[in-house]
Design a protein that fits this description.
Elements: E1 4-10, H1 14-25, E2 30-34, H2 40-45, H3 47-64, H4 80-104, E3 108-111, E4 113-118, E5 121-126, E6 129-140, E7 144-146, E8 159-160, H5 162-166, E9 174-178, H6 182-193, E10 197-201, H7 213-225, E11 229-231, E12 234-242, E13 250-257, E14 260-266, E15 268-271, E16 275-277, H8 284-287, E17 291-292, E18 295-296, E19 309-311, H9 322-336, E20 351-353, E21 359-363, H10 366-371, E22 376-382, H11 387-392, E23 398-404, E24 410-416, H12 420-432, H13 437-442, H14 452-461
Parallel strand pairs: 1-2, 1-6, 2-3, 6-19, 8-15, 9-10, 9-15, 10-11
Antiparallel strand pairs: 4-5, 5-6, 7-16, 12-13, 13-14, 17-18, 20-21, 21-24, 22-23, 23-24
Helix pairs in contact: 1-9, 3-4, 3-6
This protein binds flavin-adenine dinucleotide.
Length: 468
């Protein structure tokens, strides 16, 4: 097998495998090194298996609402093992799909752990020994893993990371979720829907803290309506673990809020307090690569400052999203092939949370736009005034848009409600095409669709909404 390449990519997550495929499409000799699983966290332990499990929860929820639709469903229940089996099966299917795509595009795959031994030199430790590879260009795409806070470390029994939560040893009865970012809220939504008494603790002053404050508030109302307890501006200081008590283990959490500590007992804790980049063991220090809080520092083109060495995806910093990783992969591969490229702009990347109701957003929040000194026009449209939402039985939610008052630039869009993770891309395309309020107002939206709310929210920003 050849050991010299134009491009070697380390890590076959969405950033890495897409970079390798795009490089190969452009005629470069490409290899990818992966130590664990093709598809990375995204396909194996992240985006895809969580969405498979959330789909089961969504159907379970709808089955309980059968009567609302004139239907009968009796003896509704679930089999958690079967839910997990389906999720793992889908992850496996997509993992082999990545293998097939790499083969089809003639990307050489090395299964092993890679180190950058020197500039342009990659050592791969495989089951059979160490293999030395060379390449003019090396792309680091080693991703990230769950952050562990001292005292709150996962043990796989009482305290879980996302990996344990995707392969649960049991159905939690009393669940504490630490952290209300997308990952924490998705698991809270899943287990709460299946019947776990769920408490979410968030250190910042609101859940889903990166979202627009109005959307966070609506999410809070919806989750509380579903029986979740949300404790904001609070910190889990300590977990007392008692694995053997009366057959089932218990964890007592010390939760500090406003200077007072309250103790609450759970049978399961999910720690979702962020991620750390996989920077270790790659030889980066010796190469002089700058690392800031576990992430490789790059410029807007993912260049590390070491010639021919790039870093993409979760390893290279926020937003920690698969579509950001894969887009950076394409950009870097094209740049290496000599094409003119555009840097990936984080503000143009939509964030989606697949809880119930869903949350999706792109660009500036209202507070962020004001803080940036922009004069803005804000439009809103509620789900309860949209025909399709009512027909679907999904009349809870809001679409909110923020425009620059002077130029009509669409600064941000924020949504909560059914299928908003599918809708948001309409505004992303609009922003990419530098659309203004005029273009959006002149666009004809099909009826009846949820997308009509995207039109009406724009009209509302200019005092022209028809149906509200
Ligand atoms: C529970 C959960 C849900 C998520 N849901 C979503 C979602 O809905 N949408 C979304 O956009 N994002 C989601 N994410 C985030 C998403 O998974 C990541 O942003 C994405 O996987 C990052 O891609 P990547 O290519 O940078 O790295 P990764 O997917 O982490 O892949 C990195 C790969 O590098 C390999 N590797 C590491 N070190 C080495 C080495 N030395 N040698 C060889 N191989 C190595 C690893 O084994 C891994 O396979 C979720 C994450 C989690 C945990």
């Amino acid at each position: 097998m050849s050991t010299s390449f134009d491009v070697i990519v380390i890590g076959a997550g969405p950033g890495g495998y897409v970079a390798a495929i795009r490089a190969a499409q452009l005629g470069l000799k490409a290899a990818v090194v992966e130590r664990e699983h093709l598809g990375g966290i995204c396909l194996n332990w992240g985006c895809i298996p969580t969405k498979a499990m959330l789909r089961s929860a969504e159907i379970f929820h709808l089955m309980h609402r059968a009567k609302d639709f004139g239907l009968k469903a009796e003896g509704i229940g679930y089999d958690l093992d079967a839910v997990v089996k389906r999720s793992r099966g889908i992850a496996k299917q997509l993992n082999s799909g990545v293998g097939h795509l790499l083969k089809k595009n003639k990307v050489t795959v090395f299964m092993g752990a890679a180190t950058v031994a020197a500039k342009g030199k990659v050592s791969v430790k495989t089951a059979k020994g160490t293999q030395e590879l060379t390449a003019k260009n090396v792309i680091l795409a080693t991703g990230a893993r769950a952050r562990e806070l001292p005292g709150l470390e996962a043990d796989g029994d009482l305290v879980w990371t996302y990996k344990h939560a995707l392969l649960p040893p049991r159905m939690p009865k009393n669940l504490l979720v630490i952290g209300s970012g997308a990952i924490g809220i998705e698991f809270a939504s899943f287990y709460n829907t299946l019947g776990a008494e769920t408490v979410v603790v968030e250190v910042l002053d609101r859940i889903l803290p990166v979202e627009d404050a109005e959307i966070s508030a609506l999410a809070r109302k919806a989750f509380e309506g579903q029986g979740m307890t949300l404790i904001e501006s609070a910190m889990v200081k300590q977990l007392d673990r008692d694995p053997n008590k009366s057959g089932g283990g218990k964890v007592t959490a010390h939760i500090e809020k406003g200077g007072k500590v309250e103790k609450m007992t759970f049978d399961t804790v999910i720690s979702a307090v962020g991620i750390v980049g996989n920077v270790e063991g790659l030889g980066l220090e010796a190469l002089g690569v700058k690392i800031d809080r576990t992430h490789v520092v790059t410029d807007a083109y993912c260049r590390t400052g070491v010639e021919g060495l790039y870093a993409i995806g979760d390893l290279a910093g926020a937003p920690w999203l698969a579509h950001k990783a894969s887009h950076e992969g394409v950009m870097v591969a094209e740049m290496i092939a000599g094409k003119q490229v555009h840097p990936v702009r984080p503000e143009s990347i939509a964030g989606c949370t697949y809880c119930h109701p869903q949350v999706a957003s792109v660009g500036m929040t209202e507070a962020g736009a004001k803080a940036a000194g922009r004069k803005i026009k804000v439009g809103r449209f509620p789900f309860m005034a949209n025909g399709k939402a009512i027909a679907l039985g999904e009349s809870e939610g809001l679409v909110k848009v923020i425009f620059d008052a002077a130029t009509g630039e669409l600064l941000g869009a924020h949504m909560i409600g059914a299928e908003v993770t599918e809708l948001i891309q309409g505004y992303v395309v609009g922003r990419q095409l530098e659309t203004t309020e005029e273009d959006l107002m002149h666009t004809v939206f099909p009826h009846p669709t949820l997308s009509e709310m995207m039109h009406e929210a724009v009209l509302d920003a200019y005092g022209r909404a028809i149906h509200f």
